């Protein structure tokens, strides 16, 4: 595996990260198949498992690099959900479940009466319902992590890994919409 990383680093320095990773992955697969075939004939079943693991790890690394490369150059403005659902801070989990049952959205924006102050991903609402916390309010559950329309998708993904959804603001600091992990995943799967 270290040899694969060294090969990838060498190729990446000459061909770019994505191309270097793809070539290193292909070389790794050929070597893993050769190792597995040899291990079968020599009677080493654990070596077959190890070769399979190495091939799978290479595949996942290649997939991750392709995904990262596919979002380079795109900003949050390409994926922001403008027509999202807004609920008052006093909405309970029961209220929010009722709203989400009839909506394709995965995130609710929370209004404090004057502006959008927080965001709640669908999964958090469902988890609260499952825990029997149906009377928790949107104001208690929401978080106010936000990005701007010009934030790169790469940067926004760092927040989305932790929070699942974020508020999106325009360059003047006004609410522009929401961005959630599901929207990014759908976009990545279609590109």
Short summary:
With 191 residues, this protein is an alpha/beta fold. The chain is 58% helix and 15% strand.
- Tell me, rounded to a whole number, the average pLDDT: 88
Runs in which pLDDT lies below 50 for 5 or more consecutive residues are none
How would you describe the oligomerization state of the chains in this entry?
single chain
Shape annotation: elongated
Give descriptors for this structure.
191 residues, alpha/beta, CBS-domain, 2 domains, three-stranded mixed sheet, 58% helix, elongated
What does this structure look like?
- The protein is of the alpha/beta class.
- Helix 2 runs antiparallel to helix 3 (45-71).
- It starts with a helix and ends with a helix.
- The longest helix is centred in the N-terminal third of the chain and has 27 residues, at 45-71.
- The mean pLDDT is 88.
- It has 2 domains: 2-71; 76-190, CBS-domain.
- The strands form 2 sheets. It has a 3-stranded mixed beta sheet.
- Helix content is 58%, strand content 15%.
Task: Summarize the SSE layout with pairings.
Blueprint lengths: L1 H14 L1 H26 L2 H27 L13 E4 L4 H9 L5 E5 L4 E6 H9 L7 H4 L4 E3 L4 H11 L1 E5 L5 E6 H10 L1
Parallel strand pairs: 1-2, 4-5
Antiparallel strand pairs: 2-3, 5-6
Helix pairs in contact: 1-2, 2-3, 4-5
């Amino acid at each position: 595996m270290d040899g694969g990383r060294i090969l990838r680093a060498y190729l990446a320095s000459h061909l770019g990260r994505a191309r270097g990773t793809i070539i290193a992955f292909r070389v790794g697969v050929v070597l893993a198949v050769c190792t597995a075939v040899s291990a079968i004939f020599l009677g080493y079943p654990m070596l077959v498992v190890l070769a399979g693991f190495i091939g799978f790890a290479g595949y996942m690394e290649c997939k991750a690099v392709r995904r990262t490369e596919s979002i380079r150059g795109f900003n949050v403005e390409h994926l922001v959900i403008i027509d999202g659902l807004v609920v008052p801070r006093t909405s309970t989990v029961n209220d929010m479940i009722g709203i989400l049952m009839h909506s394709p959205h995965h995130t609710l924006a929370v209004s404090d009466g004057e502006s959008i102050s927080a965001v709640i991903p669908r999964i958090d609402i469902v988890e609260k319902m499952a825990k029997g916390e149906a009377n928790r309010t949107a104001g208690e559950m929401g978080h106010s992590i936000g990005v701007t329309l010009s934030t790169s998708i790469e940067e926004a993904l760092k927040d989305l890994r932790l929070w699942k959804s974020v508020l999106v603001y325009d360059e003047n600091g006004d609410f522009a919409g929401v961005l959630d992990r599901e929207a990014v995943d759908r976009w990545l799967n279609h590109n």
